[in-house]
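Page 47, continued from p. 46.
Same chain as before, 220 aa.
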Amino acid sequence: MTRIKGYDGDGIRVTYEADLCIHAAECVRRLPAVFDPGRRPWIEAGAAPAERVAGVVHRCPTGALQYQRLDGGADETPSAENELRVIPRGPIYAVGDLVIQDAERREIGRSTRVAFCRCGASRNKPYCDGRHALIGFADDGVLGEPKVRAMDEHARELSIRLRPDGPLVLEGRFAIKGADGTTTGGGGGALCRCGGSGNKPFCDGSHRENGFKAEDPAAR
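Result:
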């Protein structure tokens, strides 16, 4: 069950979805007066100006933290570009106008920030839950041979479709950046999420050989 809690401050409401959090700790490092995991409640949304709180929430890479302005300030809007960033020994961080779809292309989620599992071990697929560290996922995050289709210059949103027991299928407009700074762009492609591809982060069909199963909560 999704657990979302709300915390009200002066001019802003911060929400926290525990099931998406992987403790990247951007919030704690940047604004400890507001975000302190050693305190209860751990979020004091009124301990800093609303503009500053919103700026830090925007840096949460998983989307576990969201905000709503109550003072007439602007709510979060998607980044102008859809970008996927491959984290060494970790997930793919995605930002932009992101639409998550089931295998039949039905929309099951929409976000501006998501961390997608790519080690195959998450119990909250397609989202990362931090188990890459427990299983010793060792990929260095460097891009393999690009397997992308031509970019649609008119596309704005990026659809991420969950193939049953298979990859994340991308359709739209995106750039993907490896850990060494190498970047490629495209309008479509498939990203490995079983952890077994020899061409990470791109799918090479290994999921069909290694028995990968993806019981995606988002697709239920």
